[in-house]
Amino acid sequence: MTDSTTGSAGLRVIAVANQKGGVGKTTTTINLGTALAAVGEKVLIVDIDAQGNASTGVGVTPDSRALTIYDVLAGQAGLYQSALRTQVPDLMIVPATTDLVGFEAEHLVDRNRAFRLRDAINGLIGTQQAMVSEKPYSYVLIDCPPSLSLLTLNAMVAADAVLVPVQCEFFALEGIAQLNETIEQIRGSLNPRLEIQGVVLTMHDARTSLSREVAQEVRNYFGAKVYDTVIPRNVRVAEAPSYGQPILIYDYDCPGSQAYVDLASEIINREQAVKAA
């Protein structure tokens, strides 16, 4: 297998991952993508979770998902042709459906099974290079399922970096050691470029000592990898997906929305530092 070329093509691929469910992966993916698009980046969200929540969260209804990430991973379509527009300019999404449930079993004996998304992203890069008049994607954000499955493995093999949302509640660090071990294994064998881009604290309630204690615990564990920006527990953030809207569209002025704008700024600064190194 050849190394991925994504890191050298001006396209940054970030997997949003944590095998623990309910930590804000999908919410972070949607709203980070929206915030990046708002400052002029062209962003492609890849929904690689069979629940398809990222697709629903940007207003893509199930009956409009003619081509999905399953078709891409099965080699029946490319990322470029499968991407759907959202209501946010420069934010596109490759949707998911429950078809993904059978992906792992169907490709159990496929030697290339861990590289399918990476190959699809390299195909996207090739398409962009041939379409010089069209604004190219600068970010691909992959919304991973809440497990260390073949789908998550595909995301990490394809990615330059992993963004880890951590919920400010009991057992916040549960499984993080396993995630770290998985990242190290992938870096050692399948994707030497892979790194943790950062850790974002989500669902933080500044009124409780628990949130403060968990935040400190996470900062002690990850050090400088933890973003300064903390995503607050916010009813408006929780409501937005049911309306098929990112929080920046649903309620731009709420604290949760402004936190995602700040997070996007931090991520861009880190990305610029990576590119300058």
Verbal overview:
β7 (195-204), α9 and β8 form a beta-alpha-beta unit. By secondary structure, the chain is of the alpha/beta class. It has twelve helices and eight strands. The two termini are 27 Å apart. The protein has a single domain (6-276), classed as P-loop containing nucleotide triphosphate hydrolases (Rossmann fold, 3-Layer(aba) Sandwich), CATH 3.40.50. The chain is globular and about 50 Å long. It has helices at 25-38, 53-57, 69-73, 79-82, 103-106, 116-130, 150-158, 176-189, 209-222, 235-239, 247-250, 255-276; strands at residues 12-16, 43-47, 84-85, 91-94, 139-143, 161-167, 195-204, 226-232.
Please identify the structural class as seen in this structure: alpha/beta
Oligomeric state of the chains present here: single chain
What CATH architecture do you see? Answer: 3-Layer(aba) Sandwich
Question: What is the molecular shape?
Answer: globular
CATH fold group = Rossmann fold
Low-pLDDT ranges: 1-8
Specify Rg, calculated over alpha carbons.
17 Å
